[in-house]
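G., the chain you wanted modeled:
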Amino acid sequence: MGSYVSQIRPLLVANPLALTVARPALTMALSTAKAASKNLYERILEDRLVWALACFLFSVDILLVSIHGAIRYSNYIGSQAISSHISPELWSLSHDWGYPECFNYLKLLFVLSVLMALASRSRQPVHTAWAAVFLFVLVDDACRLHEGIGRWISTVVGPLDSAWLPAQAVGETLFWGAAGVPLLVVLTWAFWRSAPAHRVLAAITGLSFMLLAVFAVIVDLIHAVSATAGAPKILDRAMEVVEDGGEMLAVSLTCTLALLMLRHFGSFATNFATNRDEVSLKKRSDLSLQPLSPCTG
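Predicted structure as tokens:
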């Protein structure tokens, strides 16, 4: 990356026209993202039902993460003050069908239901495609498909263990890759078959899904690598909280955005498309008014 940047920088310096074109494009992208984030936040605050849902979901998430952290810390210092009164496994963020996991299943089911309702009301295939993606995520999470199939892949393909990555993590990564390809194909097809305004809504769903994937896949992989490398126990526990707690918060955000889009998908999508066009038109106008510097060198 460093060598690539060192090769590009002299070209931009030597060619002011290229720099003049690149800078407004980046500014336009940042302005659009800033306007979209502000619009989302304002709309969440304006809708009492969506705001109440967000407050409830994030409050329960924080409570469950806090209980998990308190249990882990109590066990770390050798105290049984908490574990003697409640079941540590049922309150663990990573325990299958524990309270935190079940709460996450319900939230994923809620996202799936809202996306199906949005697809039915708008008749846009991209929302149906996203519903299929979250159905897969729900089934995988509840049935632990990535763990079971990943373990099977690691035994069938052969010895995949390395000094820094366990075979189980490699098998799970291969499973996610194999499952992601057909889902991406369907999403791409549905995206281009939908109206431009609903592509904006689909992009918002996609961003929240990417945030979920960061914790479910990337942080999970980092956690596996750190555990294999013999990381301290306290660091392993911290990574567990970041991974599972991050997943819960990401799903809560997706629930909030999904309900917001369902309740306001008409004006919501139109407003986003209008803002994008206005920003694009303004930046093009600014660019046309800028004097072009002669190329040097």
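Residues 21 and 66 are 49 Å apart (CA to CA).

Shout if anything looks off.
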